[in-house]
Structures are given as C-alpha cells and as structure tokens.
Design goal:
Layout (H helix, E strand, L loop, with lengths): L2 E4 L3 H8 L6 E5 L2 H9 L3 E4 L5 H4 L7 E4 L4 H14 L4 E5 L6 H7 L3 E3 L6 H8 L2 H12 L4 E7 L11 H12 L1 E7 L7 E3 L13 E7 H13 L5
Parallel strand pairs: 1-2, 1-4, 2-3, 4-5, 5-6
Antiparallel strand pairs: 7-10, 8-9, 8-10
Pfam families: TrkA_C, TrkA_N
GO biological process, one term: potassium ion transport
Protein name: RCK C-terminal domain-containing protein
Length: 230
C-alpha cells in the first residue's frame, strides 16, 4: 500500500512521521519542502504544478492525503486527482468549515476538519495523554484551535439550564464544540455529551470545549459580563 502525502508542512510532516517510510511518498510543489522532506529521508517527488501531465508522473498509489497550505490549491488538487485516479482513496485536510462541502463535491472520500472532531474519539484521546499530545501537534499545529476547561461562574446565564438546551446554542454563537462537563459536586471525571446525560448546569461546573482560541476567550468573557442574566 503506497500513500502519497501532498505537502510537507507541519501537518504533512507529522502524518508522514507516523507511517513507515517505505510506504510513503512525499509530493510537493515547492523546492523548500522538497529539501526538507529529503533531509528526513523520505522519497520525494517534486511537481511543477497541478496539471494532468504532472500528476500522471505519480506511480501507483492507494491513498492520497492532500494537505497543501493554500486552500484553493488543495481543493483543485483533490478535484484533479479524482478525475485522473477515479478509484483513489483521497483524504483532504480542510482549513475552514465553510469549505467542507466543496471538498466533498470535488471527490474527497474523507475530510479532516479540526472543527468536526468527533466527541467520543476525544473521550478516548483525553484518557491517553500521549495520544492527546500527538493529536494536538497534528491537528492543531496549523490552526488557532485549543482545548479548554471553562468554569461556570456563580449567577451565570447557564445556571439551571440543561446541557442539551445550551449545547447547540453555544456552538452556534461561539463556534465551539462542547466535549463534556465536569460536575465538581460529584467527581473530577469528565461526563461526555455523547453519553446522552442531560445534566443541569450549576456554577462551578466545568465545560470542556474545543475551538478557536479567540472564540474560547470571547465565551469566557461573556460568562463574566452577562452574570445574572437569564
């Protein structure tokens, strides 16, 4: 099984480092990335541009991981690969949620979107610190994303509300993904939202979220500003 990784930025390099070198070929459109990949002893193919002629230089591959920094170029790459290699398994990294549907239309089989991390996977990740570190480096290195634990202050507008009632509201307003909560009155363990428990929020409860750093800070500030407002 041969895997082609397009782009040798931080994301591409981290993915490549987890795979066996003999199964990987790094395909780049930049001489600096070519040099960097060769220094790491990967097989490298430098292409001039995304054209049928250039892409046909690629020998038989089973998977393509499209991770170019330029979103438009990455999207065009997916479209071109799908046209030339109809049976190729294509995985694409998406930099913004708004472009996800474009990649699907272009022919990507799987999309890696940091904003759409599945909560039950994160449940496993959080229980394995080493795995968490790797995931953070791979997924969050090129983005302003972060995990955060947010304590609900006294007299917060969230107090007394069920988690299911505020889940979509918070995600819609702040573009944050709520992973779970910690009820300090019971224990320090995370109650993951995927378990379907409709917890009533109280002050000192902790919301575990993932999202844009600026959005996390905005949410924290609003919790303080709008105290006492229901």
């Amino acid at each position: 099984m041969k895997i082609a990784i397009f782009g040798f930025n931080k994301f591409g390099e981290k993915i490549a480092s987890t795979l066996k070198k003999q199964n990987v070929i790094i395909i780049v459109f930049d001489e600096n990335e070519e040099k960097k990949a060769k220094e790491k002893f990967f097989d490298v193919l430098l292409l001039k541009e995304i054209t049928d002629e250039e892409l046909n230089k690629i020998e038989e591959i089973s998977y393509a991981i499209c991770a170019l920094k330029d979103e438009e170029k990455n999207l065009f790459l997916v479209l071109s690969l799908r046209e030339i290699f109809p049976k190729l398994n294509i995985v694409a990294k998406v930099s913004s949620k708004e472009n996800e549907y474009k990649y699907k239309l272009a022919g990507a089989d799987k999309i890696l979107n940091p904003y759409e991390i599945i909560a039950n996977r994160i449940m496993t990740i959080l229980k394995k610190p080493l795995t968490l570190k790797v995931i953070e480096e791979i997924i969050f290195s090129d983005n302003k994303l972060s995990f955060s634990e947010i304590v609900i202050p006294e007299n917060s507008f969230l107090e007394g509300k069920a988690i299911k009632d505020v889940y979509k509201e918070i995600q819609g307003i702040y573009n944050l993904l709520i992973i779970g909560i910690v009820d300090k009155q019971i224990s320090d363990e995370v109650i993951f939202v995927t378990k379907g428990i409709n917890h009533i929020l109280n002050h000192k409860d902790v919301l575990v979220v993932v999202g844009d750093i600026d959005e996390i800070e905005r949410f924290k500030n609003d919790l303080e500003i709008f105290k006492g407002m229901q």
